[in-house]
Automatic annotation (TrEMBL):
Protein family according to the UniProt entry: Belongs to the TRAPP small subunits family. BET3 subfamily.
Signal peptide location: none
GO BP term (any one): endoplasmic reticulum to Golgi vesicle-mediated transport
Pfam short name (any one): TRAPP
The name this protein goes by in its record: Trafficking protein particle complex subunit 6B
Endoplasmic reticulum found in the keyword field: yes
Length: 158
């Protein structure tokens, strides 16, 4: 339980620190999102490498997405993705009804506008993990009511 609290605190401080620096003229808000996404990408690559070293090869793209939703998500966020949907044409939607990084600020609707800041790292995490498994993708996040969020993964064909 202590690991989870440390991760939550580290994540919120990363977001706050980057945006605080942007407000002081050291960068732009768009660059903050890009930086958080890049950090998540690198972490995702490393985690997937560690988690899959003793795993058999995946059959297809859907098996990889199921791995991300079950094993990867459980290891990082202590629960599985609540819902995985696909159109079978390279678009997957991962829905988490109680996303851990949004839970601390989900008490009021006034924080809804700040939610995207807290999802950039996780978008990078997913994209980095998929990249290390040989899948090039674009990952976006959407929040309609806190703490639920959806991550849309668009697979790019090479």
């Amino acid at each position: 339980m202590a690991d989870e609290a440390l991760f939550l605190l580290l994540h919120s401080e990363m977001v706050a620190g980057l945006y605080r620096a942007a407000e002081q003229g050291e960068g732009e808000n768009g660059r903050c999102t890009t930086k958080l996404e890049s950090m998540g990408f690198r972490v995702g690559q490393g985690l997937i490498e560690r988690f899959t070293k003793d795993t058999a090869r995946f059959k297809d793209e859907l098996d990889i997405m199921k791995f991300i939703c079950k094993d990867f998500w459980t290891t990082v966020f202590k629960k599985q993705i609540d819902n995985l949907r696909t159109n079978h044409q390279g678009i997957y939607v991962l829905q988490d009804n109680k996303f851990r990084l949004l839970t601390p600020m989900s008490a009021g609707k006034q924080y809804l506008e700040h939610a995207p800041k807290y999802l950039a790292f996780t978008c990078g995490l997913i994209r980095g993990g998929l990249s290390n498994l040989g899948i090039k993708s674009i990952v976006t996040a959407e929040v309609s009511s806190m703490p639920a969020c959806k991550f849309q993964v668009m697979i790019q064909k090479m």
